[in-house]
Description:
Chain A is built from 19 helices and 20 strands. Chain A is α+β, with helices and mostly antiparallel strands. The mean pLDDT of chain A is 96. The longest helix of chain B has 12 residues, at 34-45. Chain B has one domain (2-91). The A-B interface holds A 26-29, 32-33, 47-52, 96-99, 342, 413-415, 421-422, 424-426, 428-429, 432, 471, 473-476, 502-503, 505 and B 7, 9-14, 48-49, 52-53, 67-72, 75-76, 79-82, 84-87, 89-90.
Amino acid sequence: MYVYDSFDHAFVRDRNAEFADQVARRLSGELSEDQFKPLRLMNGLYLQLHAYMLRIAVPYGVLSSKQVRKLAHIARTYDRDFGHFTTRQNLQFNWIKLADTPKILEELAEVEMHALQTSGNCIRNTTTDQFAGAARDEHEDPRPWAELIRQWSSNHPEFTFLPRKFKIAITGADRDRAAVRVHDIGLHAKPEGFDLYVGGGLGRTPSLGHRIKTGLKGEQLLSYLEACLRVYNRYGRRDNSYKARIKILVAALGPDEYARQVEEEWESLDKAAIDAPAAEIVRIRSFFPDPDFKDAKFDRVAYERAQTADKAFARWVKNNTLAHKRDDHVSVTISLKPVGLPPGDASSAQMDVMADVAEQYAYSELRVSHEQNVILPHVPKADLYALYTRLDAANLSTANGGKITDMIACPGLDYCSLANARSIPLAQDISQRFADANLTDKIGDLQIKISGCINACGHHHVGHIGILGVDKQGIEFYQILLGGRADENAALGVITGKGLPAEAVPAAIERVVQLYLQLRTSDSERFIDAVERLGRNTFAEALHEPA
Amino acid sequence: MKLLTANRLTDGLTLWFSAAGWSEDAAQAARLDDDAAEALLTEWKARETEVVGAYLIPLSAADAPVQREHVREFVRANGPTIGQTADEIARLHGRADIFQEY
């Protein structure tokens, strides 16, 4: 992974010193809350319903064992012993004290971490495929490009105060696991160069990104991004925060006109002054080598015997591992979605276990997925059963990767000051409704995504079943969407009928699932395939029939 | 009648204005008549080194609980409802005297 150089260390150290001074001046009263709020947000510190929340950046979701141990230490020392992994591949602590924040940031800096670009109207943390560098279907490792974007965007003087926040996602595999079509800019690396999508997003005005460029060479990536951002920065609406995202500008101009302006801007730029020199790209790539893969002898017979003897292990292998580019390795998903517990949460003890097993079995590499799970990208198959046993002892072996209980849920009204409705208790209810492992396996891949408000941090627009919490005259109701997906065939879900009260939602989903099981042509026809074949209305009726 | 609530500057915890000053316990929240509530709000909005984001929650009558349109306040008063399911939330309420049952 990337290792800080002296500039990175100095940059983070200076920012931390600056913020420590700002915190001291706020506590003394020298700064008012109005003056302080934008400063703390630029350092990832929010004031939520119950306490301050600190959002820690995990650039492109990549973590080392050492960093995860530090996060566990912070959870234990400064918070209530747990952290929450987010759909932006970051980590949030929900019970932080303002006065502790400078010390926490100092501790984070010791392991080359910070909370920059996790808030404010800047270019946020670039997200990517959690299986980058490992997946068999990958043809370009997106991490060096994500790191290049990080270095270009951090403290970029021109793009520190954009009309609104700006999110970039990048993938380099055939399958899009980074949801690039629903980001302000999505980059999909192809053999001939990047496809660049612009104007995607969720929130109040969901939109799929428009492809405005193909074959963009990596060596020209930064200047082209600069041109895209310049046009947005110049014409994006600053008069209305609801209309300030780039998707609104692209819709207003039309994708073709926006693309024309970008090309015109790009032509006018001094590209050589912006684009990274070839040697720098080589240098950054050098931080992302393959690990020193163990050539441990893989005993296939013993591996299969273990699965025969331990059905739970066999199920975990089937649901929570992904084909690796090497036959003797796999990528492992550690599900943070145990039945009945909050999606995405991990205790400090669990973080320590994940750090330890990564060190012992996975070359000390971990990733955060936007589905709020933790990934071990490189695990020798020979070590899989030993790894599973360790995870199982820490309640980290839930075998539901990609299944109906592997839900995305935002913090919702239990923590978030913007939310209109609770998300987590509803996720817990649904999870318990589908607690039967045989049933979830029978259902197969089905993504439920829950947001507690229209801002859509829970990605409800792109859930196969999306759930949006709304406030209806003081009562929480939930609108159900069907047919969304965030993959390479991205589609936005459509709202079906009127909202349901929380206690009615699990039964409504069960009716839809049962109908799907009746109507599917075979076990291999996934829920989303059946919805697309039969139409959403077929399933919407089941959602809203009387209980 | 109104309740006065805010977050403490140093740790952000939710506070309720009571007869004995600020309390972390919503059950201690003082029922303030409108004029007194407005005066206290003005006073505490200026005392930013102690609390932030002070605001008033209206009550429909002197002895009425906080109305059900304030589900947000129910959560603020009782803490995250995680660990309880929506069905349980529908049955349980921690502070019927202050916050109406959901």
